[in-house]
Amino acid sequence: MQKFQSTESYIAPRELEVAVNAAVALQRPLLVKGEPGTGKTVLAQEVARALGLPLIEWHIKSTTKAQQGLYEYDAVSRLRDGQLGDERVRDISNYILRGKLWEAFDSDTPVVLLIDEIDKADIEFPNDLLLELDRMQFHVYETRETVVAKHRPVVIITSNNEKELPDAFLRRCFFHFIRFPDRETMERILQAHYPDLRADLAREALQVFFQLREVGELKKKPATSELLDWLKLLMIEDMPAEALRSNDLKVALPPLYGALLKNEQDVHLFERLAFLSRARRQ
Amino acid sequence: MFAPFILELRKAGLPASITEWLALMGAMKAGVAGYDLEDFYYLARTTLVKDERHLDRFDRVFGEVFKGLEPPTTITGEVIQRELPAEWLQKLAERLFSAEEMAKIQALGGFEKLMETLKERLAEQKKRHQGGNRMIGTNGTSPFGAEGYNPEGVRIGQEGSRHRRAVKVWDKREFRDLDDDSALGSRAMKLALRRLRRFARQGEASELDIDGTIGATARNAGTLDLKMRPERRNAVKVLLLLDIGGSMDDHIRASEELFSAAKSEFKHLVHLYFHNCPYERFWKSNRRRSEQMLPTWEVLRTYGPDWRVVFVGDASMAPYEIVEPGGSVEHWNEEAGRVWLNRLTAHFRRVAWINPTPERHWGYTTSIGLIQDAVEGRMFPMTLDGLEGVARALR
Questions:
Q1: Which among B393, B394, B386 is positioned nearest to B192, based on CA atoms?
Q2: Do B224 and A21 touch (CB under 8 A)?
Q3: The complex's ipTM?
């Protein structure tokens, strides 16, 4: 199979390449953690593209059960059909709804399976998937069949650290922590996303961006995705680089700050800082 | 060569197990590391570390083991041959020697000879490294005559620019902030906290209400009428206020255990820090005291009266720190600590104070009595009985 490496649209540091390739080579799930907005979910899409495999996405919510990833037995519609005298009711397999994991196991080609934000689910959720991810098979009680993966999928799991994951689950995964990109990597990321971005604008925007991140008390620090959104806005507005250059964060908020600061407390914080520095100057 | 590494990791408190070690060996065999020490570092990290809090500890151990500060008996040829997969060694040899040299070695005695030479090389290299700082292969010990081989190709060694660059990756210790080094909370503590659970049905109706459905269907003369209801969830919200520094240093371990037990038990848990007595602001982070402040008024506004508040502190201080304005040891406070305590207890009706000092000593410290009054007697020792008292007080 092909090796994963940085693509035109996704800049992966060497450590991430090694982690992905190890997970692919040993067919183990790769658990990815990191600050929100550093490209955890995008990673799965890029891995799928780099390896030339289809991507199956399973987004986890607080109500998601592990069983839903395997299959669900829709007893309620069977009961309804039974009352209405539908013929379908005789075959139980008509009421087995396939989940994302089954879909991935049943695919004729290898696939990349993304289990997104696993920490959103109940605390027992990862434990319920241990055997399935380990052996890549499960049993359907209703029809007494065992579903075995035709090809072991490349499994990528993301977590935002809202809950601790159980040890037994972690043992079976490889782990990678996406660090916040440094300035140099960030420049490459910008280049990859907006090739026609003016160099002066990029430089000034990065200056403002990293300055903003250094303010310690922010509730939600702006991350890569916020920076990309903000730059897009700046480009649409055709903002001259000078508009950013004079921008001392102590004096005023950067233009179109709504893309960077997502929290009214953070905006207030900056307004207060600006007020204080103005008052001091007078 | 890796067995001591894993033992060192375990000694440093990383929960690396034989499963992970086998995975690492498997990945080496599959050629993921690419015979490059930096890649090997990344690979070992991705297989052996499962939590970003352990990354820093891993870096430290890796640096120690592979820098040779504590000379491992491992980089000698013998051990390598025992521990390393043969294919990996051969690939390494292919990197170390040029095609020409390979041909020469082949002429000298084939693969066996090659392995032997490689073994000697590695052993020699280790010895020399300890003795001085000469580069390997610069002296005339090579069996291949004057040409020798190109030391640039050596990746496993202790020298070479590539290696030095690689060392930096773990010597930078970029994950230092993430290491909280707290012992895992004891199970008993978690079970005691479990008594605080309050289940409630809130949110989206996503669960079939069987009783309701049967009732509704019967009323409907047998035609199915589905009733849904929201799931049961632990709805308790806890605000944990921790005293840090000064006299609390003796109780750090116990507080950490309590904290990690609480963290896994409550879905809604917010923790803030104060010093000795709460005043007009809290800190969000222990380390960045001066930067991450949260005004107490904001705490009162942000968290509603349905939050349960747990103070953790020894309440041992000079009485004026509680009763006098300006009593704080760290800054000038306009209003006395007692005023702020009263505000907090008036807003949050369910409050408890956990005191890690033994209960029998409480009577000897005036400030403990003052705090007892402020929290209306809801002070409990940090014992399992005490935690059950906390659970009762917060109900």
A1: B386
A2: no
A3: 0.71
